Amino acid sequence: MRGPVTFTLDLEDHRPDDSFPLRYPTVMREVLAFLAERNIVGTVFVVGVVAEAQPDLVREVAAAGHELALHSWAHTHLTDQTPEVFAAETRRGKALLEDLAGAPVVGFRAPTFSLVPESLWATEVLAAEGFTYSSSVLSAPNPLFGSPGAPTEPFLWPSGLAEFPAPLAGSGPVHVPFLGGTYFRLLPWPVIAAARRFGDVGPAPWTYVHPYDFDTEERYWPVPDAGRLAPLLWVGRRRALAKMDRLLASGAGLPLRDRIADAVAGGVFGPRRRWPPPPSAPERRRPQPLPATERSNDEQHRVQPAGDDPCAPRGAPGRPHRRPVRPRPRTQRHPRGLRRHRLSHDEHRHGDVAARPPIGWRRASSASTSTRRA
C-alpha cells in the first residue's frame, strides 16, 4: 500500500560562518506561505541552536499547525557524540522546543542520517528521553551515512521507538532517497513520478527538504561534507518549489506523529535479525589429538607435532614458510620414436607408462630420431 507523502523540513543554518547573510528565516517564511496556500501541514525538524537564535520563527511554524520535532542540538553527527553528551543535548533541545510550541515534542531526526550500526545506542537514549519516533535511517549505501540491510518500511526498534526510514528508489545495488534534498532537486519530474509509483516508499512516505533547497540567492561556498560534489547543492533550486507543488498536488500526508501506527504494523527490528551484517566466519582451529591412551599404535606416529599447526597461516609461529615439493616432470621416450613431453603426477607415482593409452604422444623430430639411432 502506498500512502500520501508527508512534508518534512529540516530547519537549520546552512551558512559556514556569520560573514554570510542570514537568509534561512526569510526563505522559511516563504515556504510557510506556500504550504498555507495549499492547506498542507507537515513536520519541521528544528536544530536546537536555531530555535535558541530564532524563537519567533519557531513559534510561527508551530502557530501554522506544523509539528515541531528535534534535529539534534547543534547538528552534530551521532557517531561523533557519546551517549552522555547526546542525552544531555537532546534533553535540552526537547525542553526548548516544547516551551516554544506549547506542545509535546516526540520526534527526532539525526543529522545526515547518522543513525547507523555504530550509533544504535541512540535509540535507547531517545526512548528514555520520551521520544516516540525517529526519522534517521537511510537503508542503502551512501557516501556519508547509510545503513544497508535495514528495513525500507516503517518499523519499531527493540526500545519501542518507531522508525520512519527514508523512501528509496533505484535498481540493483543503487538506491537513493529520491524524495529529498539534492536527489529531489536533480532528478527530473518524470523520474520522480515513476519512482514514486514503483520505488520502496512504504505506507508512510515523506519528503525532506531544507530552506536552502529553495534559496536561489545564496552565495556559493565549499561544503566540507560534500567534497567535490558541493556544487550540486546549488543545482535545481529554481525548480524545487514547483516540483514540490506537483508532488503534493494529490494530497499530503499527516505529520509523522500521526502516522506511528504504520511503524507499529511493521513489527520490531533488532540488530540480531538482519542488520548489521553477520560477522565473518570464525577462524579455523587445529583439531586436538586424542590422548595417547585412546590412540591405536598406528595413530600415535601420525599425530601432528605440537609446534607445527597445519591450519596456521604460512610464516606464523609454529609453521615455517615452506611449500610441498613435487617431483619435476621429465621427458619420456617411446621405443617407436614417439615422445611424451610431460608426465602427470600420478604417472610419476605409479609408473607403468607403456600400459597407458598413447594419448599425448607425438612423432619425435627427425633430428632427435637420427641422433637416437646413431
List the keywords.
374 residues; alpha/beta; 4-stranded parallel beta sheet; 4-stranded mixed beta sheet; 13 strands; 10% strand
Structural summary, described in words:
Helix content is 29%, strand content 10%. It has helices at residues 24-37, 48-53, 55-63, 83-101, 121-128, 181-186, 189-198, 237-247, 260-265, 297-300, 345-350, 366-373, and strands spanning 6-11, 43-46, 67-70, 107-108, 133-134, 155-156, 162-163, 169-171, 174-176, 206-209, 332-333, 338-340, 362-363. It has a 4-stranded parallel β-sheet. It has a 4-stranded mixed β-sheet with strand order 4-5-7-6. It has a 3-stranded antiparallel β-sheet with strand order 11-12-13, with no helix packed on it.
Low-confidence stretches: 277-287, 299-306, 360-374
What percent of residues are in strands?
5-15%
Find the structural class using helix and strand composition. alpha/beta
Number of strands: 13
Q: Please compute the radius of gyration using only Cα atoms.
A: 34 Å
Order of helices and strands: EHEHHEHEHEEEEEHHEHHHEEHEH
- End-to-end Cα distance: 92 Å
The total count of helices amounts to 12
| Helix percent band | 25-40%
Outline the biggest β-sheet.
4 strands, parallel
The 3D shape can be described as: globular
The neighbouring-strand order within the major sheet is 3-2-1-10
Mean pLDDT: 79
